[in-house]
Amino acid sequence: MVDFEELKDALINGRKEEAVELTEKALEEGISARHLISNVILPASKVVGDRYEHGEFFLSELVQYGDTLKVVMGPIMARLKEEIGDERQERVGRVVLATVKGDLHDIGKNIVRLFLEGNGFEVLDLGVDVPAEKVIDVAIEYNADIIALSCLMSVTRDGVKEVIDELSRRGLRSRFAVLVGGRSTSEKWAGQIGADRWAPDAVNAVDAAFDLIRQQS
Amino acid sequence: MGGMTSLERTAIALQGGQPDMVPVATLAISRALWEIGERPRTAINDPDKMAKAKIVANEKFGDDIVVAGIDGCFVEAKAMGAKSFWSDHMPIVDTRYRVINTWEDADNLSFPEPHEHIRMRCVIEESEILMDKIGDHKAIAVVVSGPFSTACNLMGHENLFRAMVKEPDEVHSLLDKITDYSIKYHTAFKGIAHAVAVLDPVASVETTSPRQYEEFVKPYLERDMAAIAGKGLIPINHPCGDTTGILHMVADVIPKGSPGAIHASYGNVETRPMSLKYLRNVLGEGVQLDPDDPYSIMLKAVKKEVGDRVCVCGNVDPITVLLEGTPEQVRATVRRNIEYGAEGGGFILMPGCDTNPYTPSENFRALVEAAREYGVYG
Known about the structure:
CATH topology of the largest domain in chain A: Rossmann fold
Shape of chain B: globular
Number of helices of chain A: 9
Low-confidence stretches of chain A: none
Largest interface: A-B, 31 and 37 residues
Number of helices of chain B: 17
CATH class of the largest domain in chain A: Alpha Beta
CATH architecture of the largest domain in chain A: 3-Layer(aba) Sandwich
Oligomer: heterodimer
CATH architecture of chain B: Alpha-Beta Barrel
Distance between the termini of chain A: 38 Å
Largest sheet of chain A: 5 strands, parallel
Structural class of chain B: alpha/beta
Number of strands of chain A: 5
Strand order of the largest sheet of chain B: 1-4-5-6-7-8-9
CATH class of chain B: Alpha Beta
Strand content of chain B: 5-15%
Distance between the termini of chain B: 13 Å
Structural class of chain A: alpha/beta
């Protein structure tokens, strides 16, 4: 039997080969993908988040965790598809994520993606310098629940407001929850431009995303 | 006004001393161009316009320090082959295009002479003009990039932070080359600037661990800063963000016995548990926090920890206070900053980072006026 604590430890500390080997072994042993997500992936993500928040983990650890999570999720998601078929009810929520127009900073956004995925969200990451129209077009097509927007520079903050204004212009404001973050943003400013939630970091972004999904349902 | 010139006032503070009053800088950098009807896009490669803008903005706001350069975080990487991307504010490095994808790329980097690369040449010429026109009474500081942040501009964050774990020797070899080249550029300001502010935004603990700072940032900055100081220029270390756990190293890179300063936001007690823990460790559990101004209080801790050996710069929040606040809020924040940071000298009041060009003029004015009002040493 695979020891879940061992697998969690390998995942948290970015020991990629060991984590993949243990994941495949667990799946071979008949452990369900859902069980692995609930008992390994989600708790591991929480540990990584706590350690980052408290200054025990930094970017290198997050990058290694992300690399490991990516390869571990491959076989888990393949098994999950077999388990649930095309049932959509199983998903936690869908997020379209972007750094807004004019801004190329992606590291904070990438950490948010990692944590959202680690917590079971489906994330479509549009990258950096993404215009408002594109964010919204993709959110419609992807049937997203949340539009999550990042900007680091204060001069590019208007890109966030443009997405919210464009949603209103198209009569779509109530269809998507808008989550905002990034160094130049603040809770007060996010409220002023009409965002639904603001998060100061990736850990809080996950909590905010769960809240937004709960509110929608 | 006191009896000292801006230059004298700033020089004394940078040496850790107490001038007639607290020196102040607005860091109205790209904004300065607006004051002459230009924008970064129309003037960045015209040293005459750049210098004129900085002088006009300085005359309007009346601060003590004039900054040469605009895209200081990126110039070295651009000289080594990085591509520019225009935001409204300045041409930043386009991180979607990476100069270094393999270590072979790192072996084939180009290192043009500073006078032969357009961005380096323009900043050097801008600084020359500023020094010539106002350098006898104003402090001229040029903004440049730290070797670690330049490496990140060349490789991209994820690749650099992965490589520091998996291929540290190659990272050291790259940093060594970047440092050699950076020194060439940074020391080219000998005689045409008073201070060199080395911007190293990737080196704060939002991304870099204290252990990595010690191994991959500090030795290269030390070498850079020593070379800068060796040419009679005053080094300023700007790691930009949270310095919790690295503050002593940030101060230690300033060569012993030389004037020098540190400048950062130092942390945010509202959003970063680490900052709050650090603050309480240094100042005690009962420290009073102001939810509308989570930055200023950090000065008190920083001053207590390293203020005896290095000049401390900061720490007005450039966004929530300067960009979004009222002149009254700016004045109140300046008063707090002076209360926390000014005692005994060795302090320069300025925003915790570069300012947004849309910052209201009345807020820049309030920053300087309040510094003059509250910052007089008795």
